[in-house]
Structure to design on (205 residues):
């Protein structure tokens, strides 16, 4: 085979490979930039509504609760882990943090999740907590007051990589609650669910 033809084939293979990689990256970005479809049987839970999770998670006495809804198989959830861990480390002495694992087909043990993701806070496997809190996507943050009223449910950040410091919605909610400030008014980017649908749920067309 002539050297020129070999170069043409090699360049063609490289261009095709990079094109495929570029398409997959674009598709992934496009897919997760869209709002998560709302499930058929979704029941909305309003801010201020009482959510009794005392039988499912025991918080430290008189502390707010921060629940991180997490699917180990969801890319958005995996991108979010460092940001969540930073929040737990920063505010862990004032708030009871817990991870709620949302999965169906693939099973993970608590030990596997701790080892793989370096999570040190309590890990819960009761998926009914998502329904109690009105969560239908991962990752999602839920902040409850000390008397278990819903204070915030939404996204961590406008960027799925949590790279935009100006839109740290979950942290803003935490700061406002801890300082007894006026409850923030969040925009659609904070309150519209983005990410992965919960495993096994059917969604509205």
């Amino acid at each position: 085979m002539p050297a020129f033809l070999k170069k043409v084939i090699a360049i063609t293979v490289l261009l095709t490979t990079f094109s495929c990689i570029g398409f997959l990256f674009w598709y992934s970005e496009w897919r997760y930039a869209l709002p998560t479809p709302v499930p058929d049987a979704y029941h909305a839970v309003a801010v201020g509504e009482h959510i009794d999770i005392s039988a499912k998670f025991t918080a430290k006495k008189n502390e707010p609760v921060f629940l991180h809804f997490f699917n180990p198989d969801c890319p958005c959830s995996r991108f979010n882990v460092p940001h969540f861990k930073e929040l737990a480390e920063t505010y862990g002495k004032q708030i009871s943090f817990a991870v709620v694992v949302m999965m169906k087909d693939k099973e993970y043990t608590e030990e596997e999740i701790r080892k793989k993701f370096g999570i040190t806070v309590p890990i819960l496997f009761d998926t009914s907590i998502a329904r109690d809190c009105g969560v239908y996507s991962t990752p999602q943050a839920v902040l409850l007051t000390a008397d278990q009223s819903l204070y915030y449910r939404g996204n961590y950040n406008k960027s799925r990589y949590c790279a935009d410091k100006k839109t740290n919605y979950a942290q803003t909610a935490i700061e406002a609650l801890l300082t007894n400030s006026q409850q923030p008014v969040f925009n659609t980017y904070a309150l519209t669910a983005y990410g992965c649908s919960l495993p096994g749920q059917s969604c509205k067309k």
In short: The longest helix spans residues 3-33. Helices lie at 3-33, 75-91, 110-117, 128-133, 169-178, 188-191. Residues 21-32 have pLDDT under 50 and may be disordered.
